[in-house]
Design goal:
By secondary structure, the chain is mostly beta strands. The chain has strands spanning 13-19, 35-41, 47-48, 53-55, 64-65, 71-72, 77-82, 93-95, 104-109, 116-122, 130-133, 141-144, 156-157, 161-163, 178-180.
């Protein structure tokens, strides 16, 4: 006799990766290249997501309800298509909102519609480049190319860094500005040549 236990442990769930501008990376079950969001279960047991909510507007936390019977196993991934194509459920999970490549927010809420489980606020996104946690479930977000929907995040990449002055030998003091295209990058540096 074997028993399987399912727990409601939403604290083990994280928004792990998403793509807000998908033109050719992965198609949904209907063959469309739509935005997608990956949820990852960091916990030691299966989690029941039935009745939880996802949104792209934290002022409207109950925008889309995850269908009854949605479970996510230990260390598992769940892909939600953010394509406003809710008539195609249960052929894949299709939320009633799309993501903006110009930046916005994604939220995951408990079944009461008020307890925030996880969220990510993001800036400009690039076509066919996802944004995800590295390592899986970690606290640091990176652009990822290639992306890894329904799989471990393994290809974190840094944004290109722009310097306000060209390299060379400097004899006078000067101001050097470092920046990234999205202004969302985190730049770490040292002045002694060591690894930051």
């Amino acid at each position: 006799l074997t028993f399987f236990l399912t727990f409601r442990c939403p604290g083990a769930l994280v928004i792990n990766e998403f793509m807000a501008s998908n033109s050719s990376t992965i198609a949904d079950p209907q063959g469309h290249f739509d935005d997608w969001i990956e949820i990852y279960n960091t916990g030691p047991s299966t989690v029941d997501l039935s009745g939880m909510y996802m949104t792209d507007d934290l002022q409207n936390p109950t925008k889309w309800q995850i269908p009854t019977g949605t479970f996510l196993g230990q260390g598992g991934y769940l892909l939600v298509w953010a394509d406003e194509d809710i008539l195609n459920n249960p052929n894949g999970l299709h939320a009633n909102f799309k993501l903006s490549a110009g930046g916005e927010v994604i939220g995951l809420y408990e079944t009461n519609g008020t307890t925030l489980v996880d969220s990510i606020s993001f800036g400009n996104q690039t076509v066919n480049v996802s944004y995800g946690r590295f390592p899986n479930g970690g606290n640091t977000w990176y652009f990822m190319s290639p992306s890894s929907p329904n799989a471990a995040n393994t290809t974190a990449q840094s944004e290109e860094i722009y310097f306000s002055s060209l390299s060379g030998v400097m004899t006078n003091s000067f101001t050097l500005k470092l920046s990234t295209k999205s202004n969302a990058g985190q730049i770490r540096y040292t002045t002694d040549g060591s690894i930051p």
